[in-house]
Model the fold of this input.
Amino acid sequence: MRIARKPEDLTQHAFNNGPAQMIALPKNLESIITRVKSPSRDVVSDNSPVEKTVKTILEDVASRGDAAVRAFSKEFDNSDLQVLEVTMAEREAAVAALDPQTRADTQFAIDNVTAFAKAQLATILPLEIEILPGVHLGHRVIPIERVGCYVPGGRYPLLSAPVMTIVPAHVAGVKEIVACLPPNAHQAMIAGCHMSGADRIFRVGGAQAIAAMAYGTQSIPKVDKIVGPGNAFVNEAKRQVFGPVGIDQLAGPSEIYTLADETGNPRMIATDMLAQAEHDVRTRVGLITTDLALAEAVRAEVERQLIDLPTAPVAGVAWRDYGEIIIVPDEATMIAVSDQIAAEHLQVHTRDPKGMALKLSSYGSIFIGENASVVYSDKCVGTNHTLPTMAAGRYTGGLWVGAYVKICTHQWLEDDAIAQVALPAIRQSASEGLEGHRRAAAFRVEQN
Done:
């Protein structure tokens, strides 16, 4: 899930939250597919204005700390806050002010995300192996010391946003979890951060929040890794600070594609498309199907539903500019096209959805069968909604508990085992002309 700013703000800036990049298919695939509806936009806008602005923000925050953070907060968020951190009393008051049902629903989401993250963490095991007699190798699973979770404000108080970034960090055993959210974010978002387990919460948004967490200020501690989605400036800031500080991923606008045969339900597919499209005018929505009648029915159904959809000013633009319906001749082509696109959210509505799912390899998260709605994952079912976009699903999965731990290797040798590895190391070093390496390997043989 990706969260946009107000619709009127979305046309001002580019980068990953700018026009979504359409994934070019190989020529051999293009020659055998038909597009019932094609995207009308397919070029990423020039990112230089955002890049330069973010560079200035980062440099100023690195130099002046809190003073720069406050100046940018006033400029971009119209905030005059002098105290950036949310006090414990304010946190507790925000939770107390929640509607009882909203609080219960938020806790339901926290419980599910916690349970799934714990189950995932249980699969990440320490390792000890004696790979040769007396040669011991292994790894430890070490939680990251301090993590910064960026919680976007968005157009609505989306309580699932802090749950998805903060809860897995808590489960992983991160020692300190810092959350930053825009100063004008709804109070319910502060409640969500508190309930999810944030140790410290700051009212700072945008690139200045990323800079503060990356470099540290008088108020905000320097973190080791920054996670969480945001707008163009947040994404660009994460890109620029990466290296000394880790990041989870660079996320573009949300995406949803459905794979369907003639058994697909056009009303359901159209509804799911528009549910995701209302996030952002740059959301990519698509259908890949073997059935022309279904393709035409889905197109008509989307247009019908837009007539009375309250969020049509956003969803309708996304459908117009980035909506895509592809006809493929067979299942094999459907799989090939889907793996090339590597959609963030991939629904499988075919006669045998489980069998089809096993044949797919590139996606952010897969939703198998009609009962599995993307909305459930967005909100509360337990899997993480922070997922790869713009074909990044070809090489990575989404945010998960494993993103908050380090797998660090170690080795130790018994005395009698030295010769087994030292002699090959000596020969290799000599052949490479690395005399220092050769001496280091030989020293232990001679001493032993």
Summary: The CA atoms of residues 11 and 18 lie 8 Å apart. Residues 1-20 have pLDDT under 50 and may be disordered. DSSP finds 17 helices and 14 strands in the chain. The longest strand covers residues 135-143.
